[in-house]
Design goal:
Blueprint: H1 2-32, E1 35-45, E2 52-54, E3 59-64, E4 67-72, E5 78-82, E6 90-93, E7 98-101, E8 106-110, E9 116-120, E10 126-132, E11 137-142, E12 148-151, E13 158-162, E14 168-173, E15 178-183, E16 188-193, E17 198-204, E18 210-218, E19 223-230, E20 233-238, E21 244-249, E22 254-260, E23 265-270, E24 274-282, E25 285-293, E26 300-304, E27 309-317, H2 330-336, E28 342-351
Antiparallel strand pairs: 1-28, 2-3, 3-4, 4-5, 6-7, 7-8, 8-9, 10-11, 11-12, 12-13, 14-15, 15-16, 16-17, 18-19, 19-20, 20-21, 22-23, 23-24, 24-25, 26-27, 27-28
């Protein structure tokens, strides 16, 4: 009888310990989840496209309207603006401390003073932009030929142009002389020799998806993550030969992505207000780790590699006045509160 009572008590204590341990595990798991850890909202005018988080310089660059808005990456407070500029995106050379905005003409500016250094006329229709670390050059992407204008960031001289054979959206460098660029109209990844500025290969998405708009690269393991719009899919490929390894579902309306080698995670931001995080547990094993709710319209993103955080942007139309001004109808009031009119710029920072 005493033995049975003791056994019952031991069993009960063991069960309670297991429940308590389970609670700790659940709590720890919750702490490991990605979430919005910081945000800001600023009134302004004009549309937006790309955001660039300068991890080394600790600044965020957002072209909006006719200027480039600059924020502190840690506090999200405004530190100034580069006027008479704007464009789609920004790239920064960490050595010369020169920044560039993708527009025509390209704006070259000093990242310390935020003063414009010069403007650089280019061909095509600038859209995306990136800094290529192996050669220390800036790539300005265009949907029209020439598809890439390559700029020497030291003096702003044009080093050459590249015909990719399609409309580029986003690029990624392996840091050793190879640049990968997704071509949204051709459903391909173009491979570029950064030294010769020549295309060496085209990798097909093999009918798995179309409209690649975001791109991540695990340079160490030679893995590409092509984030596609139709259907909403990440096509994962071998970066050496273009062999498709697998596909995974993502959110709707991707327009940007990347890879964080510190956490071995690819990520993609979507217009539907989600951020998809993909875990690479080995060079052959991948899974959707988490879908983070962000904000509708937050379709582009940038990695703060220092803090393993992802920065996203979206705009929110200002409320139309209750009583329209004289000689202005309701439809006009709505238009002014739309994409190009007065509205809030939201900066979201996602981290653990």
């Amino acid at each position: 009888m005493n033995y049975q009572n003791n056994l019952t008590r031991v069993s009960l204590l063991a069960a309670m310990s297991m429940l308590a341990a389970g609670g700790v595990i659940q709590s720890a798991s919750a702490e490991d989840l990605y979430k919005i850890v910081n945000s800001s909202q600023t009134m302004g005018t004009g549309g937006i496209d790309y955001v660039f988080a300068d991890s080394e310089g600790r600044r965020i660059y957002v072209p909006r309207g006719g200027q480039i808005l600059v924020f502190d990456l840690d506090t999200l407070k405004s530190v100034g603006a580069i006027s008479n500029s704007g464009g789609h995106g920004v790239a920064v050379d960490p050595k010369s401390h020169h920044g560039f905005s993708s527009r025509n003409p390209v704006t070259m500016f000093d990242t310390t003073t935020l003063e414009t250094i010069k403007t650089i006329p280019v061909e095509g229709n600038p859209d995306g932009i990136m800094f290529e670390p192996a050669t220390g050059r800036v790539y300005v992407f265009s949907h029209r030929a020439p598809n890439v204008t390559v700029i020497d960031p030291k003096d702003g001289a044009i080093a050459g142009t590249i015909d990719l054979g399609g409309a580029p959206e986003q690029g990624a460098s392996d840091g050793k002389g190879r640049v990968y660029v997704d071509l949204e109209d051709e459903n391909q990844i173009a491979v570029v020799d950064a030294n010769t500025l020549k295309v060496t290969a085209h990798y097909s998405l093999g009918g798995k998806a179309s409209g690649p708009a975001g791109l991540g690269l695990d340079a160490k393991n030679h893995i590409l993550f092509a984030m596609c719009r139709e259907p909403a899919t990440c096509v994962i490929m071998n970066a050496d030969d273009g062999k498709i390894l697998t596909t995974l579902p993502i959110g709707s309306g991707t327009d940007g992505g990347g890879f964080n080698p510190n956490t071995m995670e690819a990520f993609t931001s979507q217009r539907d207000g989600t951020l998809t995080v993909i875990k690479e547990t080995s060079p052959t094993t991948f899974e959707v780790e988490q879908t983070v709710n962000t904000k509708a319209g937050a379709k582009t993103c940038s990695l703060d590699a220092k803090n393993n955080r992802i920065v996203l942007i979206a705009t929110e139309a200002a409320a139309a006045p209750a009583t329209p001004p004289a000689n202005t109808d309701q439809s006009g009031a709505r238009r002014r509160g739309g994409r190009g009119g007065p509205g809030f710029l939201d900066i979201l920072v996602v981290g653990r």
